[in-house]
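Record type: monomer structure entry
Structure origin: computed from sequence
Chain ID: A
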Amino acid sequence: MGSYIYMSLLRNQDARHIDFEAFVGIIPDNPKLLPSDLDMVIERRGYFLCVEWKRPNEKFSVGQRLMLEALSRKPDWRVLIVHGDTDGGLNITGVWLLQGTETIHLGSTTEHLKETIRYWYSWVENNNALRQQEASV
């Protein structure tokens, strides 16, 4: 897929969110159980970087918060929380790393998010090299 097509999909201001209302009560013993979505996921060599976007002052549902905390505890997953929007461009006001129930503030700009993604990619490549060395011993 060409980058022009890909970028035009990302900038779709009319994109709708999926309504999971039809799933309310699907599990009788746990009627509040609902699906959740992830805003951005990058996979590289079996490692995952998940980024959840929220507008400033937008809250997480309890279920989404629990899901992200659980993912952040997995050794091959990193979870970032980004405050911002894409209204008229990419506007970021905060980037945090989620580790269980704790957050670490990483910065407040688009460049901080890009630097974090590059750092994660380098970390994956280094871990993959170590895995290959251990496998050959």
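Annotation 1: Residues 1-11 have pLDDT under 50 and may be disordered.
Annotation 2: The longest helix spans residues 110-136.
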